[in-house]
Design goal:
globular; 381 residues; 3-stranded antiparallel β-sheet
Amino acid sequence: MIYFDNSATTQVWEQSAARAYHAMTEGYFNPSAAYSAAYDMEKEVNAARSYAAACLSVRPEEIYFTSGGTESNNIAIFGTLRQIRGKARIVTTMVEHASIYETILAAAKQYQAEVVYAPLNEDGTVNINRLSEVLNEQTALVSIMHVNNELGSVNDLRQIADQVRKYAPNAVFHSDGVQAFLKTDVMRLPCDLYSVSAHKFHAPKGVGFLYVRNGVRNAGGQIGGGQERGFRSGTTNVPAILGMDTAMRLYRENSTAWHQNIRMVKERLYSNLMTLPDVVLNGPSPKAGAMHILNLSFVGVRGEVLLHALEQKEILVSTGSACSAKKIGKNRILTAVGITGARQEGAIRFSFSPMNTVEEADIAADAISQQVRFLRRYKRR
């Protein structure tokens, strides 16, 4: 099988799974308990917190473990707005993941907030030169993703932060970093809040974290037992956190070689497929975009039909975000950047991991070429 849908989820590393299994069967103690075995698990969890912080060059006490990207995004949005008095403005984009886009609409309705969408460039990035048009002193929250999950567009968080500080000095700046963490260089986070999900980098599902800069007011998430220093209650998911810790360490230790391999696979598939007629790149150029995401339109072929044809060949790809795969209708993200009609209908997203190879890119390209030619012939009939 060739798996080119790593933006949806990734295969868990054996080392990560083994550590999670050990925590479930041997180190199963609740770290909130008072005896020494529980304390040992608490130390491991806090070591994982420190390592996560080191990955972003932030402080350990600024890292709060959650169940993943969706919960982190919900806490970032609702937790911020619960601190605001009076009507507020939220600035976001039309190309955000559903866990931001839908959450902001729900939060705006609950708190009577105004939602304004930032101008975009054709490649899906925020237009920095026009961002100031939607920022003002009433802006309470700015939420703009780091890497787009469908197009691979990479936003410059530093430039966005500079604009926010200048034109919306009272705003909290959040970024969804789910597709960026460990795959995009981040020296120092310029934002106030940053969301991470573990299953995007070969760790277990159901765990992630939210970075909250010291001094930023946020009401937090669910209440109850007071875990995560009262910010997010719920029994600590030790197996998943430790599995995530192992995956982070593996990724950082091998990042140079793995990043090079991922980009080689992406560029090889791109160069192979662009020899076909009527294939159009969606989003930034392969070198400018995120190393692991490639979106192409095969004009004259329905993306969903091509997806299932490739599945029969044991090649797995997607037509967009897994969270919206079963929803019927137009693709909001592609529409927002002007990709409509036959081009939108024929869009396929390929996403890669260190497990993929250049040989897989060649095999997949041959199969895709055959299927595209056949489907176009069939459609003309």
